[in-house]
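Letters spell out the chain; backbone shape is given numerically. Take this protein:
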Amino acid sequence: MSRRLFGTDGVRGVANETITPELALSLGMAAGRWMREQGLTRRAVIGRDTRRSGPMLGAALASGLCSAGIEVATLGVVPTPTVSFAARTGEFGLGVVISASHNPAPDNGIKFLGHDGRKLSDEAELLIEALLGAVPADRFSGADVGYLHPDTELIEAYMAFLLGIVPEGLAGLKVAVDAAHGAAHELAPRVLRALGAIVSPIGVTPDGMNINAEGGATKPHVIQQSTVASGSDVGVAFDGDADRAVFSDETGRLINGDRTMGVWATHRQRDGGLHPPTVVGTVMSNGGFEEYLRSNGIGLERTPVGDKYVSQKLDETGAQIGGEQSGHIVFPHHGPTGDGLVTMLEFLGVLRQAGCPASTFIDAYGAWPQLLVNVHVSALAGWDQGRAVCAALEEGRAALGTGGRLVVRASGTQPMVRVMVEARDGALRDEVAQRIVAAMTDEIGAKVYSRVDLTHSLGE
Protein backbone atom coordinates (compact mmCIF):
# COMPACT_ATOMS: atom_id res chain seq x y z
CA MET A 1 0.00 0.00 0.00
CA SER A 2 1.25 3.49 -0.81
CA ARG A 3 0.68 6.57 1.31
CA ARG A 4 -1.84 8.93 -0.29
CA LEU A 5 -2.48 11.37 2.50
CA PHE A 6 0.08 11.21 5.29
CA GLY A 7 3.48 12.82 4.83
CA THR A 8 6.54 12.65 7.05
CA ASP A 9 4.78 14.66 9.76
CA GLY A 10 1.09 13.85 9.51
CA VAL A 11 -1.33 15.49 7.08
CA ARG A 12 -0.53 19.09 6.24
CA GLY A 13 -1.72 21.76 3.81
CA VAL A 14 -3.72 24.97 3.48
CA ALA A 15 -6.65 24.94 5.90
CA ASN A 16 -10.11 24.74 4.32
CA GLU A 17 -8.52 23.98 0.94
CA THR A 18 -6.58 20.74 1.28
CA ILE A 19 -7.08 20.32 5.04
CA THR A 20 -10.86 20.67 5.21
CA PRO A 21 -13.41 20.03 7.97
CA GLU A 22 -14.76 17.19 5.83
CA LEU A 23 -11.31 15.59 5.76
CA ALA A 24 -10.86 16.11 9.51
CA LEU A 25 -14.25 14.50 10.18
CA SER A 26 -13.36 11.52 7.98
CA LEU A 27 -9.96 11.16 9.62
CA GLY A 28 -11.58 11.19 13.05
CA MET A 29 -14.08 8.51 12.05
CA ALA A 30 -11.34 6.37 10.48
CA ALA A 31 -8.98 6.80 13.43
CA GLY A 32 -11.77 5.90 15.85
CA ARG A 33 -12.63 2.77 13.91
CA TRP A 34 -8.92 1.85 13.77
CA MET A 35 -8.67 2.26 17.56
CA ARG A 36 -11.55 -0.14 18.09
CA GLU A 37 -10.14 -2.68 15.64
CA GLN A 38 -6.75 -2.53 17.38
CA GLY A 39 -8.32 -3.06 20.79
CA LEU A 40 -6.97 0.26 22.09
CA THR A 41 -8.38 2.23 25.00
CA ARG A 42 -11.36 4.12 23.61
CA ARG A 43 -10.14 7.51 24.74
CA ALA A 44 -8.29 10.16 22.71
CA VAL A 45 -6.69 13.47 23.65
CA ILE A 46 -6.51 16.50 21.31
CA GLY A 47 -4.46 19.70 21.43
CA ARG A 48 -3.85 22.51 18.94
CA ASP A 49 -1.76 25.59 18.28
CA THR A 50 -3.08 29.14 17.87
CA ARG A 51 -4.09 29.14 14.19
CA ARG A 52 -7.50 30.55 13.33
CA SER A 53 -8.47 27.27 11.66
CA GLY A 54 -7.53 25.15 14.69
CA PRO A 55 -10.90 25.14 16.49
CA MET A 56 -12.73 24.39 13.24
CA LEU A 57 -10.56 21.40 12.36
CA GLY A 58 -10.31 20.19 15.94
CA ALA A 59 -14.10 20.22 16.35
CA ALA A 60 -14.58 18.27 13.13
CA LEU A 61 -11.96 15.67 14.03
CA ALA A 62 -13.33 15.29 17.56
CA SER A 63 -16.83 14.79 16.09
CA GLY A 64 -15.51 11.99 13.92
CA LEU A 65 -13.88 10.26 16.88
CA CYS A 66 -16.99 10.63 19.04
CA SER A 67 -19.16 9.21 16.27
CA ALA A 68 -16.97 6.09 16.40
CA GLY A 69 -17.58 5.72 20.12
CA ILE A 70 -14.35 7.34 21.28
CA GLU A 71 -14.25 9.62 24.34
CA VAL A 72 -12.28 12.78 23.55
CA ALA A 73 -10.44 15.03 26.02
CA THR A 74 -9.56 18.44 24.60
CA LEU A 75 -6.64 20.48 25.92
CA GLY A 76 -7.19 23.60 23.83
CA VAL A 77 -4.04 25.52 22.88
CA VAL A 78 -1.01 23.56 24.10
CA PRO A 79 2.42 22.61 22.74
CA THR A 80 2.65 19.39 20.75
CA PRO A 81 4.74 17.77 23.52
CA THR A 82 1.91 18.38 25.99
CA VAL A 83 -0.29 16.07 23.91
CA SER A 84 2.53 13.52 23.78
CA PHE A 85 2.88 13.70 27.56
CA ALA A 86 -0.86 13.28 28.08
CA ALA A 87 -1.06 10.36 25.66
CA ARG A 88 1.73 8.40 27.34
CA THR A 89 0.87 9.19 30.96
CA GLY A 90 -2.93 9.03 30.77
CA GLU A 91 -5.18 6.19 29.73
CA PHE A 92 -5.45 7.16 26.08
CA GLY A 93 -5.34 5.06 22.95
CA LEU A 94 -4.54 8.03 20.71
CA GLY A 95 -3.22 11.59 20.78
CA VAL A 96 -4.05 14.16 18.09
CA VAL A 97 -2.29 17.45 17.35
CA ILE A 98 -3.87 20.14 15.14
CA SER A 99 -0.86 22.15 14.02
CA ALA A 100 1.38 22.99 11.08
CA SER A 101 4.38 23.61 13.34
CA HIS A 102 6.65 26.29 11.82
CA ASN A 103 4.49 26.83 8.70
CA PRO A 104 2.64 30.12 8.13
CA ALA A 105 -0.82 30.72 9.61
CA PRO A 106 -2.97 29.74 6.57
CA ASP A 107 -1.57 26.21 6.78
CA ASN A 108 -2.64 23.59 9.26
CA GLY A 109 -2.13 19.91 9.88
CA ILE A 110 -3.31 16.81 11.69
CA LYS A 111 -0.82 14.51 13.41
CA PHE A 112 -1.60 11.31 15.28
CA LEU A 113 0.37 10.05 18.28
CA GLY A 114 0.21 6.59 19.80
CA HIS A 115 -0.52 5.70 23.43
CA ASP A 116 3.27 5.83 24.00
CA GLY A 117 3.41 9.49 22.92
CA ARG A 118 5.32 8.73 19.71
CA LYS A 119 4.18 9.56 16.21
CA LEU A 120 2.10 6.75 14.76
CA SER A 121 4.04 4.33 12.57
CA ASP A 122 3.72 4.42 8.80
CA GLU A 123 1.88 1.11 9.00
CA ALA A 124 -0.73 2.53 11.39
CA GLU A 125 -1.24 5.59 9.20
CA LEU A 126 -1.76 3.35 6.19
CA LEU A 127 -4.44 1.39 8.05
CA ILE A 128 -6.23 4.64 8.97
CA GLU A 129 -6.02 5.81 5.34
CA ALA A 130 -7.56 2.51 4.22
CA LEU A 131 -10.58 3.17 6.46
CA LEU A 132 -11.25 6.66 5.09
CA GLY A 133 -14.75 6.89 3.65
CA ALA A 134 -15.68 3.37 4.68
CA VAL A 135 -19.32 3.00 5.70
CA PRO A 136 -19.42 1.87 9.34
CA ALA A 137 -21.08 -1.49 9.93
CA ASP A 138 -22.96 0.01 12.85
CA ARG A 139 -23.75 3.45 14.21
CA PHE A 140 -23.45 4.38 17.85
CA SER A 141 -26.22 6.17 19.69
CA GLY A 142 -27.20 7.11 23.20
CA ALA A 143 -24.59 6.30 25.82
CA ASP A 144 -22.38 4.62 23.18
CA VAL A 145 -21.58 7.94 21.48
CA GLY A 146 -18.18 9.31 22.51
CA TYR A 147 -18.14 12.12 25.08
CA LEU A 148 -16.26 15.35 24.26
CA HIS A 149 -14.94 17.32 27.22
CA PRO A 150 -12.10 19.70 28.21
CA ASP A 151 -9.42 18.44 30.60
CA THR A 152 -7.24 21.07 32.27
CA GLU A 153 -5.87 18.57 34.79
CA LEU A 154 -3.71 17.06 32.05
CA ILE A 155 -2.12 20.47 31.44
CA GLU A 156 -1.42 20.90 35.15
CA ALA A 157 0.19 17.43 35.23
CA TYR A 158 2.47 18.48 32.36
CA MET A 159 3.28 21.71 34.22
CA ALA A 160 4.29 19.71 37.31
CA PHE A 161 6.46 17.47 35.13
CA LEU A 162 8.27 20.52 33.73
CA LEU A 163 8.86 22.06 37.15
CA GLY A 164 10.48 18.82 38.29
CA ILE A 165 13.22 19.12 35.66
CA VAL A 166 14.86 22.03 37.53
CA PRO A 167 14.14 21.30 41.21
CA GLU A 168 16.68 23.90 42.30
CA GLY A 169 14.73 26.61 40.48
CA LEU A 170 15.91 29.53 38.37
CA ALA A 171 15.60 32.38 40.89
CA GLY A 172 16.89 35.66 39.53
CA LEU A 173 17.79 34.39 36.06
CA LYS A 174 16.68 36.89 33.40
CA VAL A 175 15.18 35.08 30.42
CA ALA A 176 13.89 36.59 27.18
CA VAL A 177 11.19 34.42 25.57
CA ASP A 178 9.85 34.47 22.01
CA ALA A 179 6.84 32.16 21.75
CA ALA A 180 6.19 32.97 18.06
CA HIS A 181 2.55 33.77 18.98
CA GLY A 182 2.23 30.01 19.09
CA ALA A 183 1.34 27.12 21.35
CA ALA A 184 3.79 28.00 24.15
CA HIS A 185 2.68 31.63 24.52
CA GLU A 186 1.13 31.01 27.96
CA LEU A 187 2.92 27.95 29.27
CA ALA A 188 6.56 28.97 28.66
CA PRO A 189 6.44 32.27 30.61
CA ARG A 190 4.32 30.60 33.28
CA VAL A 191 6.74 27.76 34.00
CA LEU A 192 9.72 30.11 34.03
CA ARG A 193 8.07 32.47 36.50
CA ALA A 194 7.05 29.55 38.69
CA LEU A 195 10.74 28.62 38.87
CA GLY A 196 11.68 32.16 39.92
CA ALA A 197 13.03 33.48 36.62
CA ILE A 198 12.52 37.08 35.50
CA VAL A 199 10.80 36.87 32.11
CA SER A 200 10.83 39.32 29.19
CA PRO A 201 8.27 37.85 26.77
CA ILE A 202 7.51 38.64 23.14
CA GLY A 203 5.37 36.71 20.65
CA VAL A 204 2.74 36.02 23.32
CA THR A 205 -0.32 37.75 21.82
CA PRO A 206 -1.68 35.36 19.18
CA ASP A 207 -4.51 36.58 16.97
CA GLY A 208 -4.93 33.43 14.92
CA MET A 209 -2.94 34.72 11.96
CA ASN A 210 0.39 35.89 13.39
CA ILE A 211 1.85 32.51 14.41
CA ASN A 212 5.50 32.28 13.24
CA ALA A 213 5.13 35.58 11.39
CA GLU A 214 7.11 37.95 13.60
CA GLY A 215 9.77 35.72 15.16
CA GLY A 216 10.21 32.37 16.79
CA ALA A 217 12.74 29.58 16.30
CA THR A 218 12.75 29.94 12.51
CA LYS A 219 13.57 33.67 12.78
CA PRO A 220 16.19 33.59 15.55
CA HIS A 221 17.47 37.11 14.89
CA VAL A 222 14.36 38.35 16.72
CA ILE A 223 15.23 36.62 20.02
CA GLN A 224 18.88 37.56 19.57
CA GLN A 225 17.92 41.24 19.39
CA SER A 226 15.35 40.94 22.17
CA THR A 227 17.82 39.28 24.55
CA VAL A 228 20.24 42.18 24.24
CA ALA A 229 17.52 44.87 24.33
CA SER A 230 15.98 43.43 27.52
CA GLY A 231 19.31 42.93 29.26
CA SER A 232 18.54 39.25 29.72
CA ASP A 233 21.03 36.55 30.68
CA VAL A 234 19.73 34.26 27.95
CA GLY A 235 16.98 34.12 25.34
CA VAL A 236 14.86 31.24 24.08
CA ALA A 237 12.67 31.03 20.96
CA PHE A 238 10.09 28.37 20.12
CA ASP A 239 8.43 27.42 16.87
CA GLY A 240 4.65 27.42 16.43
CA ASP A 241 3.96 24.12 18.19
CA ALA A 242 6.92 24.40 20.61
CA ASP A 243 8.55 21.07 19.87
CA ARG A 244 11.85 22.87 19.25
CA ALA A 245 13.81 25.64 20.92
CA VAL A 246 16.89 27.70 20.08
CA PHE A 247 18.76 30.15 22.30
CA SER A 248 20.62 33.43 22.33
CA ASP A 249 23.49 34.28 24.65
CA GLU A 250 23.54 37.60 26.51
CA THR A 251 25.48 39.25 23.67
CA GLY A 252 22.93 38.22 21.03
CA ARG A 253 24.77 35.25 19.53
CA LEU A 254 22.80 32.22 18.37
CA ILE A 255 23.00 28.91 20.24
CA ASN A 256 21.61 26.34 17.82
CA GLY A 257 20.79 22.68 18.38
CA ASP A 258 24.37 21.47 17.96
CA ARG A 259 25.66 23.86 20.59
CA THR A 260 22.76 23.13 22.94
CA MET A 261 23.54 19.41 22.80
CA GLY A 262 27.25 20.10 23.20
CA VAL A 263 26.68 22.19 26.32
CA TRP A 264 24.38 19.62 27.91
CA ALA A 265 26.46 16.54 27.04
CA THR A 266 29.82 17.93 28.17
CA HIS A 267 28.29 19.17 31.42
CA ARG A 268 26.86 15.71 32.10
CA GLN A 269 30.15 14.11 31.12
CA ARG A 270 32.09 16.23 33.61
CA ASP A 271 29.60 15.22 36.31
CA GLY A 272 30.06 11.57 35.39
CA GLY A 273 26.44 11.21 34.36
CA LEU A 274 26.64 10.67 30.59
CA HIS A 275 26.15 6.94 30.00
CA PRO A 276 26.87 6.00 27.30
CA PRO A 277 29.21 8.88 26.31
CA THR A 278 27.32 9.40 23.05
CA VAL A 279 25.30 12.12 21.33
CA VAL A 280 23.02 11.44 18.36
CA GLY A 281 23.10 14.02 15.57
CA THR A 282 22.43 14.01 11.83
CA VAL A 283 24.55 14.20 8.71
CA MET A 284 24.15 17.99 8.98
CA SER A 285 25.69 18.27 12.46
CA ASN A 286 28.76 20.49 12.27
CA GLY A 287 32.26 19.00 12.17
CA GLY A 288 33.44 21.47 14.79
CA PHE A 289 30.72 20.18 17.08
CA GLU A 290 31.85 16.59 16.50
CA GLU A 291 35.48 17.53 17.14
CA TYR A 292 34.50 19.30 20.37
CA LEU A 293 32.58 16.26 21.59
CA ARG A 294 35.49 13.97 20.75
CA SER A 295 37.91 16.17 22.70
CA ASN A 296 35.67 15.65 25.71
CA GLY A 297 35.53 11.88 25.30
CA ILE A 298 32.09 11.85 23.68
CA GLY A 299 31.18 10.16 20.42
CA LEU A 300 28.73 11.41 17.79
CA GLU A 301 26.37 9.00 16.05
CA ARG A 302 25.02 10.48 12.81
CA THR A 303 21.66 9.71 11.19
CA PRO A 304 19.85 10.93 8.06
CA VAL A 305 18.00 14.23 8.45
CA GLY A 306 14.73 13.76 10.34
CA ASP A 307 13.67 13.46 13.96
CA LYS A 308 12.34 9.92 13.46
CA TYR A 309 15.84 8.74 12.54
CA VAL A 310 17.27 10.49 15.58
CA SER A 311 14.70 8.76 17.80
CA GLN A 312 15.48 5.38 16.27
CA LYS A 313 19.21 5.81 16.92
CA LEU A 314 18.54 6.92 20.49
CA ASP A 315 16.63 3.69 21.03
CA GLU A 316 19.46 1.65 19.49
CA THR A 317 22.32 3.28 21.38
CA GLY A 318 20.71 4.18 24.69
CA ALA A 319 22.12 7.71 24.33
CA GLN A 320 20.62 10.39 26.58
CA ILE A 321 20.35 13.18 23.99
CA GLY A 322 19.94 13.59 20.26
CA GLY A 323 18.70 16.16 17.82
CA GLU A 324 19.22 18.57 14.96
CA GLN A 325 20.72 22.02 14.40
CA SER A 326 17.17 23.39 14.12
CA GLY A 327 16.70 22.97 17.89
CA HIS A 328 14.55 19.86 17.67
CA ILE A 329 16.12 17.87 20.52
CA VAL A 330 15.02 14.65 22.20
CA PHE A 331 15.83 13.77 25.81
CA PRO A 332 14.59 10.16 25.91
CA HIS A 333 14.60 10.03 29.71
CA HIS A 334 11.90 12.73 29.61
CA GLY A 335 9.94 11.53 26.59
CA PRO A 336 10.19 10.01 23.11
CA THR A 337 9.71 13.20 21.08
CA GLY A 338 11.16 16.68 20.80
CA ASP A 339 9.95 19.10 23.47
CA GLY A 340 10.99 22.75 23.30
CA LEU A 341 10.06 23.43 26.92
CA VAL A 342 12.07 20.45 28.18
CA THR A 343 15.00 21.61 26.04
CA MET A 344 14.70 25.09 27.54
CA LEU A 345 14.68 23.83 31.11
CA GLU A 346 17.53 21.37 30.61
CA PHE A 347 19.67 24.12 29.05
CA LEU A 348 18.81 26.71 31.70
CA GLY A 349 19.48 24.13 34.41
CA VAL A 350 22.99 23.60 33.06
CA LEU A 351 23.48 27.36 32.82
CA ARG A 352 22.49 27.79 36.46
CA GLN A 353 24.62 24.85 37.66
CA ALA A 354 27.67 25.96 35.69
CA GLY A 355 27.42 29.46 37.14
CA CYS A 356 28.75 31.11 34.00
CA PRO A 357 27.24 33.30 31.26
CA ALA A 358 25.74 31.69 28.18
CA SER A 359 28.46 33.26 26.00
CA THR A 360 30.97 30.90 27.62
CA PHE A 361 29.34 28.01 25.80
CA ILE A 362 29.67 29.64 22.39
CA ASP A 363 33.35 30.33 22.98
CA ALA A 364 33.94 26.63 23.80
CA TYR A 365 34.45 25.70 20.14
CA GLY A 366 34.43 27.12 16.65
CA ALA A 367 32.05 25.77 14.05
CA TRP A 368 33.57 24.61 10.78
CA PRO A 369 32.54 26.61 7.70
CA GLN A 370 29.45 24.86 6.32
CA LEU A 371 27.51 25.71 3.16
CA LEU A 372 24.23 24.34 1.82
CA VAL A 373 23.37 24.88 -1.85
CA ASN A 374 19.85 23.88 -2.92
CA VAL A 375 19.93 23.04 -6.63
CA HIS A 376 16.74 22.75 -8.70
CA VAL A 377 16.72 19.87 -11.21
CA SER A 378 14.19 18.96 -13.89
CA ALA A 379 14.07 15.36 -12.64
CA LEU A 380 15.53 13.61 -9.62
CA ALA A 381 16.01 10.30 -11.41
CA GLY A 382 19.58 9.95 -12.65
CA TRP A 383 20.80 13.34 -11.51
CA ASP A 384 24.04 11.77 -10.22
CA GLN A 385 24.74 9.37 -13.08
CA GLY A 386 26.47 11.69 -15.53
CA ARG A 387 30.24 11.56 -15.99
CA ALA A 388 30.90 15.20 -15.06
CA VAL A 389 28.76 15.14 -11.91
CA CYS A 390 30.24 11.85 -10.74
CA ALA A 391 33.76 13.19 -11.29
CA ALA A 392 33.00 16.43 -9.43
CA LEU A 393 31.60 14.50 -6.46
CA GLU A 394 34.60 12.17 -6.36
CA GLU A 395 37.09 15.03 -6.66
CA GLY A 396 35.25 16.99 -3.97
CA ARG A 397 35.45 14.15 -1.46
CA ALA A 398 39.13 13.66 -2.23
CA ALA A 399 39.89 17.38 -1.81
CA LEU A 400 38.11 17.51 1.56
CA GLY A 401 39.76 14.35 2.87
CA THR A 402 39.52 14.08 6.64
CA GLY A 403 39.27 17.85 7.02
CA GLY A 404 35.74 18.17 5.77
CA ARG A 405 32.53 16.44 4.68
CA LEU A 406 30.35 16.32 1.59
CA VAL A 407 26.67 15.38 1.91
CA VAL A 408 24.67 15.41 -1.32
CA ARG A 409 21.09 14.14 -1.28
CA ALA A 410 17.89 14.47 -3.24
CA SER A 411 14.93 16.14 -1.57
CA GLY A 412 12.05 13.88 -0.63
CA THR A 413 9.41 16.53 -1.38
CA GLN A 414 10.78 18.83 -4.12
CA PRO A 415 12.70 18.52 -7.42
CA MET A 416 15.78 19.64 -5.54
CA VAL A 417 19.24 18.29 -4.77
CA ARG A 418 20.84 19.55 -1.57
CA VAL A 419 24.61 19.96 -1.66
CA MET A 420 26.20 20.42 1.77
CA VAL A 421 29.93 21.08 1.91
CA GLU A 422 31.86 21.50 5.14
CA ALA A 423 35.58 22.12 5.60
CA ARG A 424 37.98 23.53 8.14
CA ASP A 425 38.91 26.09 5.49
CA GLY A 426 36.16 28.31 4.11
CA ALA A 427 37.88 28.82 0.75
CA LEU A 428 38.13 25.06 0.18
CA ARG A 429 34.47 24.67 1.14
CA ASP A 430 33.39 27.23 -1.45
CA GLU A 431 35.66 25.81 -4.15
CA VAL A 432 34.31 22.26 -3.76
CA ALA A 433 30.71 23.48 -3.76
CA GLN A 434 31.28 25.60 -6.84
CA ARG A 435 32.77 22.69 -8.81
CA ILE A 436 29.89 20.35 -7.99
CA VAL A 437 27.18 22.89 -8.76
CA ALA A 438 28.93 23.89 -12.01
CA ALA A 439 29.03 20.24 -13.11
CA MET A 440 25.32 19.85 -12.35
CA THR A 441 24.52 23.06 -14.24
CA ASP A 442 26.51 22.07 -17.32
CA GLU A 443 25.51 18.41 -17.49
CA ILE A 444 21.86 18.29 -16.39
CA GLY A 445 20.77 21.92 -16.65
CA ALA A 446 20.39 22.39 -12.90
CA LYS A 447 19.83 25.85 -11.44
CA VAL A 448 20.82 27.19 -8.04
CA TYR A 449 17.72 27.80 -5.93
CA SER A 450 19.40 29.07 -2.76
CA ARG A 451 22.70 29.22 -0.89
CA VAL A 452 22.71 29.12 2.91
CA ASP A 453 25.78 29.55 5.10
CA LEU A 454 25.07 27.08 7.92
CA THR A 455 28.19 27.86 9.94
CA HIS A 456 26.34 29.86 12.58
CA SER A 457 22.71 29.12 11.68
CA LEU A 458 20.03 26.52 12.26
CA GLY A 459 20.52 24.09 9.41
CA GLU A 460 17.34 22.47 8.16
